[in-house]
Design brief:
Belongs to the glycosyl hydrolase 3 family. It comes from Bacteroides intestinalis. 23% of the residues lie in helices and 25% in strands. The protein is α+β, with helices and mostly antiparallel strands and 862 residues long. It has four domains: 329 residues, Glycoside hydrolase, family 3, N-terminal domain (TIM Barrel, Alpha-Beta Barrel); 219 residues, 3-Layer(aba) Sandwich (Rossmann fold); 139 residues, Galactose-binding domain-like (Jelly Rolls); 116 residues, Immunoglobulins (Immunoglobulin-like). The strands form ten sheets. Strands 13, 14, 15, 16, 18, 20, 21 and 23 form an eight-stranded antiparallel beta sheet that branches. The termini are far apart. The relative contact order is 0.11.
Length: 862
Amino acid sequence: MKQKLFYLLPILVLTGCGQVSYKNTSLSPEERADLLVKELTLEEKVQLMMDGSRPVERLGIKPYNWWNEALHGVARAGLATVFPQPIGMAASFSPETVYDVFTAVSDEVRAKNTYYSSKGSRERYQGLTMWTPTVNIYRDPRWGRGIETYGEDPYLTSRMGVMVVKGLQGPADGDYDKLHACAKHFAVHSGPEWNRHSFNAENIKPRDLYETYLPPFEALVKEGEVKEVMCAYNRFEGEPCCGSNRLLMQILRDEWGFDGIVVSDCGAIADFYNDRGHHTHPDAESASAAAVVSGTDLECGSSYKALVESVKKGLISEEKVNTSVKRLLKARFELGEMDDLEKVSWAKIPFSVVASAAHDSLALKIARKSMTLLMNKDNFLPLRRGGLTVAVMGPNANDSVMQWGNYNGMPPHTVTILDGIRNLLGADDKLIYEQGCPWVERTLIHSAFSQCKSADGPGFTARYWNNLTREGSPVTTTQVTTPFRFCTSGATVFAPGVNLTDFSATYNSVFTPVQSGEIVLEVYCYGNGRLRVNGEEVKGFSNKHGARKTTHAMKVQAGQSYDIELDFEYLRSDAQLNFDLGFKREVDIQKSVEQVKEADIVIFASGISPSLEGEEMGVNLPGFKKGDRTDIELPAVQRELIDALYRAGKKIILVNCSGSPIGLEPETKKCEAILQAWYPGQQGGTAVAEVLFGDYNPAGRLPVTFYRNVSQLPDFEDYNMTGRTYRYMQDTPLFSFGYGLSYTTFSYGKVVLDRSEVTAGQTLKLTVPVTNTGKRGGEEVVQVYLKKQGDAEGPVKTLRAFKRVFIPAGQTTNIEFDLKDKELEWWDEQTNTVRVCSGTYDIMVGGSSEDESLRRTLVTIK
């Protein structure tokens, strides 16, 4: 026996008392977590329950930051491939491509994490727990964060969301997990943004809860085996979601068997008790205790510091705290984050994958698949090259930042729509660029950077220090003669001799305008700083969650001098600083029309921007409120310019960029074609141009209904589904869910079922012949919808299967679907559950959700 024990000693890692240690990698992550939690003090446990988890040095626990983003590429961590916004990826109706995208994203995450870890850096946005995907239902087009979702349909959202999780988390058979994904925001959370910290989603019908709001989360938990779930800001039926026993314990853990981590949305626990929040709890101690008891293990915020006092006051037992800490430690062991990187195979992914050529090609592939052609009068598209004069106009024609969407990384290059069109024009074609108007306002800004001169010459004198406090002499002094475009992505320093991180800078110049008027100073940066004019600070900024724009407007007099000083400091990697200044000029619609008078065709890049629609933003412009929309039509200045072009006899192609459905009804009467391009990522301009010139045959389909105007929408704050989305809408929308055109045509034959009756547990095989009746090959998205006859309260139809398939010109392909219990289930009023229910069902198959495009058959479920 002694001899046998001696043989095992090199394998087992023992503590000084002869007990097995958590450092023993032969134990399971759960066993290791069990051992480690016993060695922690209460104070140490609490430190591990916040997103910025502090180290426990006596036990060898490193610091770890749980907050990381990868919505459509590695976000807020500098250099990364930027894929289309999720709502655009949803338009691809291609879960397989989405899986490929997020496999690429997870490769980049791992490579960057390995790099940061090798430098001893464990900051926010450098870790392995990615707070994505967003699988809330896009129930109302006015919601600003709908751009982060996969649309309005529970089935489509589920299929896309599961692929995101599988791509991020990697294969399940490795020694360590590749990454951990997070399903958010749980649950019944789809705006409004302006009052989300106090909003109560109440009186939700059980049917709407289980048929619409919960299915994507259930799919991610059960099929995707997602490792984290983020609870939402709002209340559900009176309880804050992060303290909802109904959501987190009864549904998530008991009904679905989720045993992973629940993390709060950032600051959501403070909303329990602070002035702008729910006022359901008196203080941090009671709020934190309630959240942990309800199942929220990890807080993004700092309220959980009060848990030590909560335990002392008897508001929560230490055993409850232990349950959450074990989950957190188990996750860190699963990722290999607590072990040496040499033991983790995922750490061998080279940094060269980051923003690689292969990933750039994948960004183009998914951008192409997302392009959704909504209108094409008399086959106006594709355009024919050769002696063509094309005018490119509109606020989104030459805007790379718009294409990046939100929660984005920094691509090494971006092809704008203007670039894409220019690149594809023929040698004897001519291009005219005239922006014409911005998104909403009626002023344009024209650079006056050339009117700046410092003591050392034209432009700005730049001084740099390799510290954050400007101590000592500058390490470098240079002259910046063009508008600033600095970024340390790809190990590119701001100037020779300057650190990539932990540096500061001061830029000085004297601006002497040649004309009087209003000047705008614009800073777009990732970092901290201050802008001073004539020694007075006019704007301060501290952007810690990605780059943001800051502006300052002021009146200037011609010939008068203005001292301008810009300070900048950056601690983390991948700093960014853009700066320019320019005069405001009123939009002159008639002048813009005159500028393009020679154009045969006007390509107008319309729409809005992630700087207008998004998460709880400070934007309050006509049509927008805190990131939400109050109107869904194009902003008035764009409509007026399009109208003027139309009255001038111009042939207009509208390329609309937005993350939300736009009410384009007036434009359907004035334009020859409409292409919905979403926020298409770094290769978006190439994809747009390829579609316009016919190099790529579009096959994107709408993942959201495009309404005519707000009169077709119910009250924004009403979460019941009556009248919402294609599933419950009685009116006729402008463009239906699932709709999209091609440069070829398809016809559907008879839908054939392998049986007329089916019972629970059986598979119903459906076959439909689809013929490409056009002259060029193309992809069709074949969609299957279900409706229970006699169910007046249920959806008029609901998506239950789809396939994106290529069919050569003139050929017929038999498309097959296997419909199982999940595809055939329905709401059962008797049990208030979703299950396979007896009855007669309409099965509808076609190229969109429009009734006239669907072929129908019946099936009886016994």
